[in-house]
Design brief:
mainly alpha, single chain, 197 residues, TetR/AcrR family transcriptional regulator, HTH_TetR, elongated
Length: 197
């Protein structure tokens, strides 16, 4: 990579970082190129030259965020961890993701950008579901999941949980001790409210 390409990458990363920071506090529709320009300390023309539009910039920032999360997830899942550790890791990854991008922002981005929605759907089908099934099968083989519980049962339970995840995260944030609240949710995920038999 020559000096020009390195400089171009630094500018692009600076713009994307400024945009990501703004997404933590603002709805996507309230973010303006002029505000990103000011925060990144670059001209509006520079932003348009690198990204073409605000929508393309938001898409690239979100895709970059998701791709990094997937890489981190796969790296951890390939490690030698128990099922409980893996599920706990997923929940705490979600907590960190929530701090960076609130679920409402993610939903708005996907409603506004059909290409982005298709990208997330593709990731879900090609990465999330196969990884989840793999984790379930490993859990059954190790005895961490009961043999009479099917992968479909676990996927349905996880889906119920994830459908309410933004509410759970809001409740965790309001509890005053998010980590302890989520640890309790992990405990209930595995053992219900009565504890391990």
């Amino acid at each position: 990579m020559n000096g020009f390409e390195r400089r171009a990458n630094r500018i692009k990363e600076k713009i994307m970082k400024a945009t990501m920071e703004m997404l933590q506090t603002l709805e996507p529709k309230r973010i303006r190129i002029a505000d990103i320009s000011k925060r990144a300390n670059v001209s509006q023309v520079t932003i348009y030259n690198y990204f073409g539009s605000k929508e393309a910039l938001l898409r690239e920032v979100f895709v970059n965020f998701v791709d990094k999360a997937i890489r981190d997830f796969e790296e951890y899942m390939n490690g030698n961890h128990s099922l409980k550790d893996k599920i706990e890791h997923i929940i705490f990854m979600e907590k960190e993701a929530y701090r960076e991008l609130r679920p409402g922002v993610i939903k708005e981005l996907m409603i506004e950008d059909h290409e982005l929605a298709r990208y997330v759907e593709k990731l879900y089908k090609e990465k999330t579901i196969p990884w989840t099934v793999r984790i379930i099968e490993e859990g059954k083989m190790s005895g961490e999941i009961a043999k009479n519980v099917s992968a479909e049962n676990v996927l349905a339970f996880i889906q119920l949980y994830m459908n309410q995840y933004d509410t759970i995260l809001e409740m965790a944030a309001q509890s005053g001790d998010m980590d302890n609240f989520l640890e309790g949710m992990v405990q209930m995920f595995f053992y219900g409210i009565c504890g391990k038999p």
